[in-house]
């Protein structure tokens, strides 16, 4: 920005900023939430209509008081006698430099000259170096009139010295009165958590406060614009040195840019700026770009003289260049080390991958890892036995992935898709164990009764044994809840030695549940069939489509229609999931469906299935099922053994007749589980005692217990290990009484 062309108003409203330093030619965001600053935004920036009204003076390192009642920090402490920060009786002391930037509290980190008492020479050198200090003769004339050298920057060093030498007992006070005039290019307001504005301000030029005109509702000051071109070009003495400095600075700036990655747009822009902008503006711009502390920026801001500004920024620039060089070197060493150690990863960067390098941060490392990952993924795809058509699609996607920046959301989507493709069991299957005799034994062991169903299942298995690739009917078990339809499905998988996967269809009303979403959807996923195949890891599992009669039909398509394709042996060898978008052969999958009724199954679906009715059980069947299957199963599930709990046949009958009313045995199983839980608690409590009293003989004790674990308080009899009885205090009492009575009789 050519500051010579800028003419700022002579009166500027002041924005007091405690954090951040705005340098001419750069932009900062400032949060405005204090009283005077808020007033400035509201009455000046938001109301003003002209371009001039958007120009404000930004005074750095100055805290605006929270309320208007509090006093404004001194922006211009010309008449301050008390600022002398120590009582100096030393005759050799001609003055003190207060290391504050003039405003309160003093900034302890500001160490231009330190807070020490200066010798005359030091003081003069200090003053000559800085063009922004004020000199007070505190003893002779402590008032504003005494500010004789207020605007010292215009004085040549020689003249300055001659003015200083005759003066004794001076106090030098460094006052921050340099600010940056800036244009507020954006104002964003919010009321949460409290009213505040965020301003985006672009710096125009430095200014110098001459006088604060008013303090309320916001400070306005008479200012003098500082950055003017004639200041740079005039003064032929300095021009030679200035030229050298500016050339030197330019070279360093070029060096810095060369260390950065030109493919990053901001860097390319900076490179162009270096050539097109007047060299005088570069220190400010670069100081705001490179890594500098707030204090360093303040020092650059204070350096009104161009020579001084170059001198202040060159070391900062050099420091940044050295830092970048070191970073590059260490990164290179690290890469070399990796190459040496990991010999199995010879290709670190595929030529076809457009390398986007960000040497300033860790992006490069991350990207390298990513490139490795993609190469690994490609390898996995090639080894995954994927059919030709699907492989083509995968390779196309891999190609896209390589050219895609990893920050793109699609990168993750494509990667997930490819990982699914790798994981799918395209050609992986288990070999069937088709031994009819063993199958019969297994089915009998797992399930009592169900003769009709078992017969049909065995027939089905027999046909499969004879004809291996049977495009068989889909079995559908229909019967009331809890009659063992699901568990027979599981047994069939076990008999065949296949993986088992249950897909619950109850309440499903969206066809994407079966067939997946198209990948264009946000959060798209494959359907349950493909998901199931991925989780079992083989292409010939037993899929149990549970509750097929309870599918709904919603706005998102009919899931039953999607199932038609899945269940039709003529079609399902090329089932296409929307997410996958390539066909998958489902012909090896054994589908079994279950339903409570056929009334709600769509006819087209019904037509594709062979129905096997499973009737409800009689009381005797239930007792047998409980004794043979449910009680041992529940004991096992609760970590109990018959040593802990025995439920006699009469009790089981009692539970069935008094506590359950159902066609199946699910409720019966729940009651048995409730009893097991109650006993399990006692067993757990007795564990520490059991070690001591394990020698106790088993007593065949019939105990009458009122089991609260059952829903009402009918009396049931169980045979429980006396060890547990000991802990069931109430019950124990009753048991003792009973034994006593029996003994008495
Ligand atoms: N004949 C049987 N032999 C052994 N256990 C059985 C028998 N019938 C049912 N069960 C048991 O009953 C419980 C419930 O069975 P399952 O969940 O298979 O019922 P379902 O008919 O699928 O019910 P729903 O229609 O509600 O899904 C299971 O623990 C199962 O082992």
TrEMBL record:
Residues 12-321 form the Lon N-terminal domain. Gene3D superfamilies: 1.10.8.60, 1.20.5.5270, LON domain-like (2.30.130.40), P-loop containing nucleotide triphosphate hydrolases (3.40.50.300). ATP binds at residues 479-486. GO terms for molecular function: ATP binding; ATP hydrolysis activity; ATP-dependent peptidase activity; serine-type endopeptidase activity. One of its GO terms (biological process) is protein catabolic process. Keywords: ATP-binding, Hydrolase, Nucleotide-binding, Protease, Serine protease. It holds the Pfam family AAA. The keyword Protease applies. The keyword Phosphoprotein does not apply. SUPFAM superfamilies: P-loop containing nucleoside triphosphate hydrolases, PUA domain-like. This is Lon peptidase 2, peroxisomal. It comes from Callorhinchus milii (Ghost shark).
């Amino acid at each position: 920005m050519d500051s010579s062309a800028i003419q700022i108003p002579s009166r500027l409203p002041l924005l007091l900023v405690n954090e951040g330093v705005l340098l001419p030619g750069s932009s900062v965001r400032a949060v405005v939430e204090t009283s005077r600053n808020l007033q400035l935004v509201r009455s000046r920036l938001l109301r003003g209509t002209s371009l001039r009204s958007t120009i404000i003076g930004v005074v750095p390192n100055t805290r605006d008081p929270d309320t208007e009642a509090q006093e404004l920090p001194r922006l211009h402490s010309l008449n301050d006698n008390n600022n002398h920060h120590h009582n100096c009786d030393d005759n050799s002391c001609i003055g003190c430099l207060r290391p504050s930037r003039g405003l309160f509290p003093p900034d302890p980190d500001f160490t231009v000259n330190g807070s020490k008492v200066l010798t005359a020479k030091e003081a003069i050198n200090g003053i000559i170096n800085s063009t922004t200090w004020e000199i007070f003769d505190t003893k002779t004339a402590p008032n504003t009139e005494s500010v004789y050298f207020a605007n010292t920057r215009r004085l040549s060093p020689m003249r300055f010295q001659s003015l200083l030498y005759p003066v004794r007992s001076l106090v030098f006070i460094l006052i921050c009165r340099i600010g940056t005039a800036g244009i507020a290019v954006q104002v964003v307001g919010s009321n949460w958590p409290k009213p505040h504005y965020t301003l985006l301000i672009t710096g125009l030029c430095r200014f110098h406060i001459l006088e604060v005109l008013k303090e309320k509702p916001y400070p306005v000051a008479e200012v003098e614009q500082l950055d003017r071109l004639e200041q740079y070009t005039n003064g032929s003495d300095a021009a030679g040195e200035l030229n050298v400095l500016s050339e030197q600075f330019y070279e360093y700036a070029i060096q810095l840019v060369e260390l950065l990655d030109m493919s990053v747009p901001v860097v390319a822009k900076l490179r162009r700026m270096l050539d097109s902008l007047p060299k005088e503006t570069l220190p400010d711009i670069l100081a705001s770009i490179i890594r500098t502390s707030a204090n360093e920026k303040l020092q650059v801001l204070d350096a009104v003289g161009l020579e001084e500004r170059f001198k202040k920024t060159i070391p900062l620039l050099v420091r940044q260049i050295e830092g970048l060089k070191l970073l590059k070197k260490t990164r290179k060493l690290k890469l070399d080390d990796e190459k040496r150690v990991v010999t199995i990863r010879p290709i670190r960067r595929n030529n076809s991958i457009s390398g986007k390098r960000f040497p300033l941060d860790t992006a490069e490392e991350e990207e390298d890892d990513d490139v490795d990952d993609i190469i690994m993924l490609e390898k996995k795809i090639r080894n995954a036995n994927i059919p030709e058509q699907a492989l083509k699609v995968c390779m196309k996607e891999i190609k896209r992935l390589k050219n895609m920046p990893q920050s793109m959301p699609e990168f993750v989507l494509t990667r997930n898709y490819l990982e699914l493709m790798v994981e799918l069991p395209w050609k992986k299957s288990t070999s069937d164990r088709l031994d009819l005799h063993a199958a019969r034994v297994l089915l009998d062991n797992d399930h009592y009764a169900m003769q009709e169903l078992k017969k049909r299942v065995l027939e089905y298995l027999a046909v499969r044994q004879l004809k291996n690739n049977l495009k068989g009917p889909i079995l559908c078990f229909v019967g009331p809840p809890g009659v063992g339809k699901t568990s027979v499905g599981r047994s069939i998988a076990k008999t065949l030695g296949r993986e088992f996967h249950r897909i619950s269809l109850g309440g499903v009303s969206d066809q994407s549940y079966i067939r997946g979403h198209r990948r264009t959807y946000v959060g798209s996923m494959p359907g349950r069939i493909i998901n199931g195949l991925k989780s079992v890891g083989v292409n010939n599992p037993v899929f149990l489509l549970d509750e097929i009669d309870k599918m709904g039909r919603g706005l998102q398509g009919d899931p039953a229609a999607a199932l038609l394709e899945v269940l039709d042996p003529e079609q399902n060898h090329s089932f296409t999931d929307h997410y996958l978008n390539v066909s998958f052969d489902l012909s090896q999958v054994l589908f079994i469906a279950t339903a409570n009724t056929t009334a709600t199954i769509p006819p087209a679906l019904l037509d594709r299935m062979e129905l096997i009715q499973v009737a409800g059980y009689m009381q005797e069947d239930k007792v047998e099922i409980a004794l043979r299957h449910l009680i041992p199963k529940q004991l096992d599930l609760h970590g109990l053994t018959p040593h802990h709990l025995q439920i006699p046949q009469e009790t089981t009958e009692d539970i069935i007749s008094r506590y359950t009313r159902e066609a199946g045995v699910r409720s019966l199983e729940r009651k048995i589980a409730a009893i097991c839980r109650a006993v399990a608690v006692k067993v757990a409590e007795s564990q520490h005692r059991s070690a001591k009293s394990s020698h106790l003989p088993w007593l065949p004790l019939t105990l009458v217990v009122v089991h609260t674990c059952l829903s009402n308080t009918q009396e049931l009899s169980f045979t429980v290990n006396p060890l547990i009885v000991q802990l069931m205090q109430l019950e124990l009492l009753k048991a003792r009484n009973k034994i006593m009575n029996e003994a008495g009789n």
